[in-house]
Each structure stands twice: as structure tokens, then as C-alpha cells.
Amino acid sequence: MSFRWQRYCAVVNSKVAKWAGLTNFALTMKQIAVIGGGTMGNGIAHVFAQCGYAVNLIDVKQEMLEKAMATITKNMDRQVGKGTLTEEQKASSLARIKTFTQMADGVSNADLVVEAATENIEIKLNIFRQLDALAPAHCVLASNTSSISITKIGSVTSRPDKVIGMHFMNPVPVMKLVEVIEGFKTDKTVTSNIIELSKSLGKVPALTQDYPGFIANRVLMPMINEAICSLHEGVAGVEEIDTIMKLGMAHPMGPLQLADFIGLDVCLAILKVLHDGFGNPKYAPSPLLVNMVTSGDLGVKSGRGFYDYGHGTKDLIVAPGFTKN
Ligand SMILES: NC(=O)c1ccc[n+]([C@@H]2O[C@H](COP(=O)([O-])OP(=O)(O)OC[C@H]3O[C@@H](n4cnc5c(N)ncnc54)[C@H](O)[C@@H]3O)[C@@H](O)[C@H]2O)c1
Question: Which CATH superfamily is domain 3-209 in?
């Protein structure tokens, strides 16, 4: 979606809300804090800044903030090259992003915090305890978690009614979906505000309730796990499994390539949440997945998973150990 179209959508949404006489807090949210400058955090900061929001990007590591700004600049350069963003829009978008290593400095004026830190429950609960103490009382606290309970996250704050899931997809500037997850105590007005806000980013929000894996990962992860089990049992090879799902089901990527892209450690962590949360053996992670994660084969980020990425991600080369000879 072009920048002009995104702004058009935001203006139309605002007019519709005014016409309907809604008191729409979403449209008055101006200052956004993003926690975590990794894969997802930099994409989330990119999209908010491009859509006119002021963004404070916060990470405990200065080098991650520098890497995040370099990635956002590179991705905006690509948009300029494609003609979907002008040089002026790129410059003004980048100028809207400030970086911080101290949470207190970055969230003190926030209307909305989107947390995109490491997928680890202790880290997230600790962050939300701090956010509750440091962010203004009106501030909505959203998490981009792939699988951790929003209700659990909300329970460590004094404002569970203002805690919600805002699950962006990777790569954030490209993917249209925001899975909005309503915790057990989330206020309905907060939910509708986050839905409106997501639309103002040119995204398509879809609402789910807070149960393990929500919808995206509850449906996706068993498919990935089944592909890994089939490989482990020797039913078909890596290329065959991915080809069958790409050409037979019109998936843009096969499940094994997608698992490499997501990160095999992340897939394993989500399967464990599904397995623990539902107590159903159908979610038990494949022993092959467990072995790969234990040995450090995590997919694209470690250079090897089901495919070998020693030469980048463009050419798909099956990893040694999964080749047929
Ligand atoms: N990677 C994906 O495809 C994907 C897709 C959807 C959702 N998610 C979710 O998004 C979140 C982030 O995932 P990611 O892939 O960007 O992870 P990542 O490892 O790339 O980045 C996490 C960042 O969080 C920072 N961090 C850790 N503790 C922090 C703290 N206390 N305060 C501030 N920053 C802190 C780290 O330094 C790191 O830069 C996770 O909850 C993940 O489940 C990931």
C-alpha cells in the first residue's frame, strides 16, 4: 500500500468517526513508544512513523537501536526506489523516530506503548510492571507477543483494562494483518480504539480472544510441526514438502522455509505454549525440531535450518543432513 493511500485511509477513518459522533481515543493517540528494536520493533516503529505518529523506540542495547535505524532507513530507501515514498516523506518519517535506552525517558509521554521485546514471559512481565509504573495513566499498553497470554501480562499491572495484544506480522511494513487480542479484562473501548488505530496504519485488524496461540499461531504452528514430523518420518524430503504446500495450496512459502524464516526457537516456544495451554498431545513439538533448536540450527538467523543460508536467503539450498545423498 502506498504512503498516499495510507494517509487517505487515515483521513477517511477520522471523518467517518467524527460523522458517527464517536469519541475515538485512537485518533487522538499521537505519541507511540515501541519497546524492543529487533526484527519486529523496527518494523512497527517504521510503520507508525510513516503514518505520521511520533515514535520513541526503546531497547536495552544501544547497538540494537543503531541497527534498527539502519534497517528502517534501508527499507524506506527501497520504498523510495519503488516510488511508494518520496525523499521528503522518508526524511520526515525518520525525523519522527527518537531512540532511548532508558524506558523511563521513552514512555513518560506515551499514549500507546507497543511492546516487541524478546519472547520470554519473565522479560515481558518485568517490562509491563515497569511500564505500569512509568507510563501515564491514560496510556494503553499493547504487546506484540506471538503466544504469551495477554490476560497474564495484564494481571501484573494495575490497568488490565488497558492491556491488549497487537500482533503484527513479519515483515511489518509489508504484511497487512494485525491480530488484535482482547485479554480477559480488556475494556471494549480500548479494543475498538486499537482496531481503529490499526486501520489508520493501513492495516487490516482481526479480533481474537485470549487463548493459547490466539488464531494465527494456533492454526499455523500445528501445520509447521506436521511438516517437520513428516520430514522426520521420511515421508518426503524438504523440497518436496515445501513444493507440495506451495504449488498445491498456493502458499507463498513452504512450511519448512517459513519455519526457518520465523526462527525454529520461536516455533518451538509457541508449540510449548500450545501444548501446555491445551494439554493436548497433538501440539507436542517434533523431536527433530527440539534437536535442531538444541544444536543451534535456528533457521535464517543462525544461517542454517532446513535450508542453508550461508549464501543469503535468495537461493534455497537444502541444509546438509537433509539432502538426499
Ligand atoms: N519474528 C517474528 O517473525 C515475529 C512475528 C510476530 C510477533 N513476534 C513477536 O515480537 C516480539 C519480538 O520478536 P523479534 O523477532 O523482534 O525479537 P528480536 O530478538 O529480534 O528483538 C527483541 C529485542 O528486544 C530487546 N529487549 C529485550 N529485553 C528488553 C527490555 N527489557 N527492554 C527493551 N528492549 C528489550 C532486545 O535487545 C532485542 O533487540 C516477540 O514477542 C515475538 O514473539 C515475532
Answer: NAD(P)-binding Rossmann-like Domain (3.40.50.720)
The domain locations on the chain are 3-209, 217-318
The three three-digit cell numbers of residue 92, written as one number: 520526515
Express each pLDDT in 87-131 by its tens digit. 999 999 999 999 999 999 999 999 999 999 998 899 999 999 999
Beta bridge partners of 178: 168, 205
pLDDT digits (tens, 9 = 90+) for 232-284: 999 999 999 999 999 999 999 999 999 999 999 999 999 999 999 999 999 99
Ligand 1 centroid distance, CA of 130 (Å): 17
66 catalytic per annotation = no
Q: List 307's β-bridge partners, or say none.
A: 318
pTM for this one?
0.88
Residues 5-33 as b/e (b if ≥16 CB within 10 A, e otherwise) read ebbebbeebeeebeeeeeebbbbebebbb
Please identify which of the residues 56, 143, 146, 225 carries the catalytic annotation: 146
The CA 144 to ligand 1 mean position distance, Å, reads: 8
Peptide bond into 171 cis (omega under 30): yes
Question: Can you name the CATH fold of 217-318?
Answer: N-(1-d-carboxylethyl)-l-norvaline Dehydrogenase; domain 2 (1.10.1040)
